[in-house]
Amino acid sequence: MPSNDMTEENGKIFCMERGRFARALLRRFCPWWLWVAVGVAVLCMMWGFIVDLRWVLAGFFVLLVAVPHALAVSYYNHALCRECFVNVLPHTIDVDGNALVVTLYEKKKKEDGADEPQEYAELRRERFDGNCVRDWWISDGDGFIGITDKKPGFIWVPKDADNFLEISNFARNNKSLTLQKE
Q1: How far is CA 168 from CA 41, 70, 95, 132, in A?
Q2: pLDDT tens for residues 99-132?
Q3: pLDDT, tens only, 76-100
Q4: pLDDT tens digits along 52-64
């Protein structure tokens, strides 16, 4: 393992919140038929309150049994691939020529009672060539780079990243800009 140590003071290390990652993953990769299943479940529950309560049970069955299985398949197909999982680990993002380099870090364990800032050790680097960039979109001021390497995924670029403009220019020069509203 490389031994470059970083603290939050001498380099910005980012980590996407888990809930935000789940929302971005669902918006980006949730199959259309899953949204149809959720719509059918909601309609069944509404119909059940009007006509017959058995329809409420049918709606809950679809919502609580079928949908979680479909979400698990989506999670395993996208969230665990290297094109996505880098977002939820402590990382930095840099542009190196015609490639996007995501450096992953691990937190060093603090000694008991130590009142020092959190330190990180470099874990590994993930490199995505410019031809892997599929698109660039902005949501809530943060940037997202669509990546298609082995599997489709995305890289989150927080709006307070020091090199946000450099990364956004890199992504826009490879693909067109699209705006999405959350």
Answers
A1: 40, 33, 10, 15
A2: 889 999 998 877 766 667 778 889 999 999 888 8
A3: 888 888 888 889 999 999 998 888 8
A4: 888 888 888 888 8
Report the alpha-carbon distance of residue 165 to residue 163 in Å, rounded. Answer: 6
Claim: this prediction has a pTM higher than 0.90: no
Query: Is residue 142 within 8 Å of 16, Cβ to Cβ?
Result: no
- Phi then psi for residue 39, to 5 deg, are -60, -40
77, two tokens = 């197909």
Residue recorded with tokens 């490639």: 99
Which residues contact residue 76 at a Cβ distance below 8 angstroms, ignoring those fewer than 6 apart?
Answer: none
Of 98, 117, 97, 156, nearest to 11 by C-alpha is 117
Whether residue 7 contacts residue 118, with contact meaning beta carbons closer than 8 Å, is answered with yes
Helix and strand tally (H, E) in the chain? 6, 8
Return all residues near 11 (Cβ < 8 A) that are at least 6 apart: 92
Relative to beta strand 91-95, strand 99-107 is antiparallel
Question: Which two three-digit tokens encode residue 13?
Answer: 């290390």
Distance (Å, whole) CA 10 – CA 146: 28
